[in-house]
């Protein structure tokens, strides 16, 4: 069969593009009064939160002393404290000011993205804008490029704009379906994250301060940066309000808006430009603080059910600005109240907002309704290949895998020859050669077994979800594995690799259970499964970052390498669990080949031929989760293998799973073995984690798949 040319989806246009209120008629005095009341009410909520935030700090100086110092009503230095005014102006006001400005910028940016795309899941995060900005800043920092202070925001802007343009282009335009938009944004964000992580590892001295900053922090040296960003944010918001009438009309649809005189292309281009500038300004000020741009507009539109005037963008835009500020200040204040001001200095403020955003994303996905029988996957409609081709491809892949495994043994910090392997096998090699092969062989075996497990896991996931762009990570497995491992390292100092890997397996399985349970709502909607998986993936990753920055500095490099996917330090005991699970899963895969073929068609065909659809799907997904989880014990967290290997297998041998399964396993094993060899060789004696090599190669391939899958 040929490669997929369309992406399956169970969403109709009406569901993919959420209903937005029609442009409101001219409001009279009552409407203006309602708008004023809403904005005033939000401002009154923000004010006490900001006051509470100002009272939090490491100095122990409370609100009364700070207020007295600010108003000059202190009776004596002894009463107020000699540094109260300095603390207020030099530390606490800059932090709360930065939080308000970041919330305002991200809230309005999210409102613009969602209105322009007519999609409630569009935001600076799901469009990879924050990821692009972070990557651009990391590149400049890693290579020591001299950038004037006034141009520092331009670096983040260029990176964010390029990422947004790429995501929208891959998804098929700003008005693309929810699932396509989120998948495109997630893939692009993962690719940018892999590039950023690679730079953080290779240029660790130059980028030391960027890891914590990369999750968002409101720590400010002084108020200069915040003051400098005020006119930029104010001008952009004013321009967005000027654009509000066009945005109101765009909610009717492109055709209706065009008839009413709205220039569609220029409006979208200008609106996206404004949103990216706001996002870049926020990133420059406080780093990538996640999901405020998703939550604030969603909350505003929920309030619009009670106060209809919020349906007008002239009111919606300032309202989302205030809601965004409330979210950031509340999240930061709650974090400081829970862990204490001293500990909060080292914790990324973006963690709490990302967890909140993940919850909102899951709740939105839970409201998704099935639109009837699902469409067949593009793979199911592809051209068949003959059995000779399948035999040839499988044989060739097996030969290439053997060659790749051999090359993996020979390469590394020092290169060896085939004769050295023969001497090692006969136990006649020199001690240095024996030591090298004794350490390399388990690594190659771990990569081989884990790659095959991920290839088989991805095959199960794609067949069950009927989506050739799905992968095990979308079941929450990757995020859950990372969170479980980091919790163990934080709680158990000096935890062994076995304990870390076991915790990763347990975390992966628990995460899958949560994702599947939340996705079930009178039946399984595959798009809902993907979106909830992505939401929890973001949430687990944010919590992982929280535990990681709180871990011992001595454990951080080991954890970061493990989270990036690496075979470093593996022994034969690490390979055994993966091999055992593979031996159990392969017979199941052989038994289920017919059922998987039927599941990949639609929901109705399995039922018509007597196949128990949901039990088989659940069994396949559980097997996929176990395979992906045990692969974590061998190579850490590795993405994209479960996506690329099954898709490449279908493109080479067709969609029949009797052929896809062995091909995907061989290709997955080959990809990870080659990535491991490259990671150990490119910058030897230093090493790049195999997971980053896979991501850097797999992400462009994912981009290619998504571009080809446009309906």
Automatic annotation (TrEMBL):
The chain crosses the membrane at residues 27-49, 96-114, 126-147, 153-174, 181-203, 223-244, 316-339, 345-365, 390-410, 444-461, 473-492, 498-518, 530-551, 571-592, 618-645, 657-678, 690-707. This is ABC transporter permease. It comes from the Bacteria. It comes from Brevibacterium aurantiacum. It is found in: Cell membrane. GO terms for molecular function: transmembrane transporter activity. It is a multi-pass membrane protein. The keyword Transmembrane helix applies. It holds the Pfam family FecCD. Belongs to the binding-protein-dependent transport system permease family. FecCD subfamily. Residues 1-20 are annotated as: Disordered. Keywords: Cell membrane, Membrane, Transmembrane, Transmembrane helix, Transport. InterPro entries: ABC_BtuC-like, ABC_transptr_permease_BtuC. GO terms for cellular component: plasma membrane. GO terms for biological process: siderophore-iron import into cell. Residues 1-12 have a biased composition (Low complexity).
